[in-house]
Structure to design on (251 residues):
């Protein structure tokens, strides 16, 4: 009798486990790790390094293009240093968890050009445009751009120089100096500055003045100042789920 009772309990437990598994919807899955591969693209007779990852590929869905522009300390041609910035993983994990189908590209800015002059993202604008368009499946592909420090300034410059290319952007600890507010106004943008940033000093950048011009031109923006954040923390920790929700809500 005891053996029969024990057997009945075991069967009941197995049934309960099976039922609990079947209750999980078929369309739900654990977010996959995003893996970036090393690639190069050729522009102006020069081979240039970048990293690329596919996120949530879906049949019949045109993937968005996500672009991340690194800060000045990651310049070079090793196609490695730029991947040390934590914002890349934060954005990639977010896109994976949210089921966003995308191609994520992380180019590396060279230290110097062929004439030995120091390089930055502003000088790389045409090369970036070429790379982005080469990764777009169609002219209708959504393109989201992010960056901090030199990458934040580069983000402002790309929004200004190529106003019809981007769906939304996020610039952290960047300076929009010499940018065209009326062009930037064509793309929703989230800006973050650190109140204790001694490199990209808020009083010197005076970002709100530029954003006022963006608003006058009909632009849509969000702007946060984190009072206790220095330059490094602003570049590393700005990419919160709340902010990314806002950026990727634009389609």
């Amino acid at each position: 009798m005891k053996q029969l009772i024990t057997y009945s309990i075991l069967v009941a437990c197995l049934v309960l486990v099976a039922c609990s598994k079947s209750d999980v919807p078929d369309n739900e899955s654990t977010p996959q790790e995003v893996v970036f591969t090393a690639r190069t693209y050729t522009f102006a007779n020069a081979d240039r390094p970048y990293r690329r990852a596919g996120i949530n590929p879906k049949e019949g869905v045109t993937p968005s293009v996500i672009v991340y522009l690194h800060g000045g300390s990651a310049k070079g041609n090793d196609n490695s240093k730029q991947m040390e910035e934590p914002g890349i993983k934060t954005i990639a994990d977010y896109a994976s968890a949210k089921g966003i189908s995308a191609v994520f590209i992380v180019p590396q800015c060279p230290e110097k050009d062929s004439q030995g002059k120091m390089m930055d993202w502003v000088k790389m604008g045409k090369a970036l445009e070429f790379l982005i368009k080469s990764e777009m499946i169609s002219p209708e592909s959504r393109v989201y751009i992010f960056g901090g420090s030199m990458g934040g300034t580069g983000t402002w410059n790309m929004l200004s120089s190529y106003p019809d290319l981007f769906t939304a952007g996020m610039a952290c600890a960047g300076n929009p100096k010499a940018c065209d507010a009326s062009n930037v106004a064509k793309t929703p943008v989230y800006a973050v500055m650190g109140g204790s940033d001694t490199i990209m000093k808020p009083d010197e950048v005076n970002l709100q003045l530029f954003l006022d011009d963006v608003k006058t031109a009909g632009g849509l923006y969000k702007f946060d100042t984190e009072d206790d954040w220095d330059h490094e923390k602003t570049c590393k920790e700005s990419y919160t789920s709340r902010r990314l929700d806002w950026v990727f809500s634009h389609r």
Notes: The domain at 33-248 is CATH 3.40.50.1820 (Rossmann fold).
